[in-house]
């Protein structure tokens, strides 16, 4: 099955700085890569996703890039705010519509 | 829609007891997923259903775990007998790839299970 590696496991940035989280996957046939955000004590929620037919997708302060050749994709958050503090998970298809999640990155944005 | 509903929200039980977790997916969603989340292992897929049929249960840790989906609006995850290492947050999620613009999975609030 798909193997997803996520780095770093923790990330601390100052408010206003950018944050980048990277994931690698193993199955070259994978074609869908979502990112989920989980605030403390809450459920994971989708924030952005990308399909393999595009290299980049943006939604306001967040963007995701995909390098199919290298089999890695990244989440970029610009102008970080304290409310961006959360755990972020990348994922890749496990089979069918199931997902294999990375281990998560705990992002702390300090004022 | 109220979203994915899970019950109970918290469960504290003693080792050896049977535990049943319940999930009601979003109406019309034909995929249902059960996940377990721990600090050590992250978010693990246990089993998922399509149109009430189990598709992949390879993530179920052992025979003590079982899951059913008797109809499109209800699923259960049962642990019998429970052990302290089963303590975790169990999430249920549902999706409808044919209707949603993406493959988004909608998670329930989770059940925090503590086995003493």
Explain what the structure shows.
The complex is a heterodimer of chains A (111) and B (116). Helices cover 0% and strands 59% of the residues of chain A. Chain A is built from no helices and 11 strands. Chain A has strands spanning 4-7, 10-14, 19-25, 32-38, 45-51, 56-59, 62-67, 72-77, 86-95, 98-101, 105-110. In chain A, the strands form 2 sheets. In chain A, strands 2, 4, 5, 9, 10 and 11 form a 6-stranded mixed sheet that branches. In chain A, strands 1-3-8-7-6 form a 5-stranded antiparallel sheet, with no helix packed on it. In chain A, strand 4 (32-38) and strand 5 (45-51) form a beta hairpin. Chain B has strands at residues 5-7, 10-13, 19-24, 31-38, 42-50, 53-56, 65-71, 74-79, 88-95, 106-107, 111-115. The mean pLDDT of chain B is 94. In chain B, strands 2, 4, 5, 6, 9, 10 and 11 form a 7-stranded mixed sheet that branches. Chain B is built from no helices and 11 strands. Chain B is globular, with a radius of gyration of 14 Å. The A-B interface holds A 32, 34, 42-46, 49, 89, 94-104 and B 31, 33, 42-45, 48, 50, 55-56, 91, 95, 97, 102-105, 107-110.
Brief characterization of the structure:
The complex is a heterodimer of chains A (111) and B (116). Chain A is mainly beta. In chain A, 0% of the residues lie in helices and 59% in strands.
Structural class of chain B: mainly beta
Radius of gyration of chain B: 14 Å
List unreliable stretches of 5+ residues of chain B: none
Task: Tell me the major beta sheet of chain A.
Answer: 6 strands, mixed
Terminal CA distance of chain B: 36 Å
Q: Count the DSSP helices of chain A.
A: 0
Number of distinct beta strands of chain A: 11
* Morphology of chain B: globular
Greatest interface and its residue counts?
A-B, 20 and 21 residues
Task: Provide the succession of SSEs of chain A.
Answer: EEEEEEEEEEE
Gyration radius of chain A, rounded: 13 Å
**Range of strand content of chain A:** over 45%
Distance between the termini of chain A: 41 Å
Strand content of chain B: over 45%
Structural class of chain A: mainly beta
State the helix count of chain B: 0
Q: Uncertain segments of chain A of ≥5 residues (pLDDT<50)?
A: none
Provide mean pLDDT of chain B, rounded: 94
Q: Output mean pLDDT of chain A.
A: 94
Shape of chain A: globular
């Amino acid at each position: 099955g798909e193997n997803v590696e996520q780095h770093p496991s923790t990330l601390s940035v100052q408010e206003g700085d950018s944050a980048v989280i990277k994931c690698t996957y193993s199955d070259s046939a994978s074609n869908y890569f979502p990112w989920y955000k989980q605030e403390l004590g809450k459920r994971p929620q989708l924030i952005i996703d990308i399909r393999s037919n595009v290299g980049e997708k943006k939604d306001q302060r967040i963007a995701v890039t995909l390098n199919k050749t290298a089999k890695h994709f990244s989440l970029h958050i610009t102008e970080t705010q304290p409310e961006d503090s959360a755990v972020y998970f990348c994922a890749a298809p496990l089979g069918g519509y199931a997902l294999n999640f990375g281990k998560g990155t705990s992002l702390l944005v300090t004022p | 829609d109220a979203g994915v509903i899970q019950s109970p929200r918290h469960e504290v039980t003693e080792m050896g007891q049977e535990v049943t977790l319940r999930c009601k997916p979003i109406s019309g969603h034909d995929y249902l997923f059960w996940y377990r989340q721990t600090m050590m292992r992250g978010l693990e897929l246990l089993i998922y259903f399509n149109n009430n049929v189990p598709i992949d249960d390879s993530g179920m840790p052992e025979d003590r775990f079982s899951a059913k989906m008797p109809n499109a609006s209800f699923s259960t995850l049962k642990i019998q007998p429970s052990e302290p290492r089963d303590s975790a947050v169990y999430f249920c999620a549902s999706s409808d790839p044919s209707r949603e613009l993406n493959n988004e999975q909608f998670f329930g609030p989770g059940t925090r299970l503590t086995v003493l």
